[in-house]
Write a structure and sequence with these properties.
Strand content: 5-15%
Number of strands: 7
Radius of gyration: 24 Å
CATH class of the largest domain: Alpha Beta
Helix content: 40-55%
Distance between the termini: 40 Å
Number of domains: 3
Strand order of the largest sheet: 1-2-3
CATH architecture of the largest domain: 3-Layer(aba) Sandwich
Structural class: mainly alpha
Low-confidence stretches: none
Mean pLDDT: 85
Order of helices and strands: EHHHEHHEHEHHEHHHHEEH
Amino acid sequence: MSQEKGFPSAFCGISKFTEKNKALDAIHLIAEEMLMGFPKAESVQKDILELFSKRKSLSNAQVQFTKFLLELWKALDTELAVVLLDDIQNLMEVSNSIDILRAVLSNEDIVKKTKFLFILSSTPAGWASFIDKHDPVGRFFRKRLFVENLKEREVMATIDMTLKGTGAEFEDGIRKNIFEYTFGHPYEVQLLASHLYDSQIEGKVSVDAWDNALNSTLKELGRDYFKYLLSKASDREKDLLKILAEEKKLITIKDFTTMMIVGKRAKKFPIANIKNFLYRLEEKGLVKRIEGRGFYIQDLMFAEFIVRFGLE
C-alpha cells in the first residue's frame, strides 16, 4: 500500500538473538535491512554503515541509529518512509534494544526533521512485556486499534485480487469454506488461503485439498496463537471449552449442567461453579455470550483446533 502511493517502504525481519548479543547488533541489523529495502539508499550505504564500525556501547547504539535515520532521510527525498519490523519478540533477549528504538524515535530531531513510520509486529505473547503501563515503552502500546473482520464480499475480493495473474483458481466450495471457517479474520484468511494455494494441482484448488490445508493451517495457528489462548484457561475452564468446541453452537448454563450430569462429559466436575467458569472464559476473551441464549466460541478455527488437536 505504501509503495502504491509512492512512498518507499522496507520490510525488516528480525532474526533470533541471544543474551550474548549487544544492543548495537540488533540496531545494526535493522539499519542494514532498511538500506536494502530502500532503493534510494545506495548513495549513503557506505558512509552510514561506517557509523556502526565504532566502539560498541549502549550509548553508541542510540546515537548512531539517530544519525543513521537523519542521514537516510536526506537520501530518500520523500514525504514519508515506512519501516515494517517483523518478529519484534526476537529482540527481547537483547537488553534495551526496544527502549533504544523508543528513545530514537522520540528524539526531537527525528520527530521534527523526518517522517519515518515504524510498524512493529510480534507474536501475541511477545506483546506482554510492552503493555506494562509503568514501562517507558508501554505508553506507546496502551491504545489499541482492533482490525475488524472482513465481510464476505471483501474476503472474496481479497482472494480474487491475490490470485489474479497467478493462473490458480479456487473452486466456489473452497471460497465458501474459507469465509465460513475464518469468518473474515484477516490473518486466518491469509494463512488458510496460502496453504490452499500450495495444494493446487495444475492451477486448480478443489475441495479435495481442503482437509490437509485446514490441518496445516490449524497447526500453524496453534503454534503461533491458539496454544497461547489455551494457556489462559484453567483445567476446569478447558473442560467447558472442549464442549463448546465439539457442539459448535450456543449453549446455556442449564444445558451445560445437563451435559455434565447426564452426559458425564467431565468427571468430578464442580457443577455449581459452571456459571463462574463460563464468565471467567468470557472475561479472558475465549468465549462470547449472548444474553439469554448462552455461550459460544466465536472463532470457528479455534474451536476446530481444540477438536482436532486437543487442549494440551
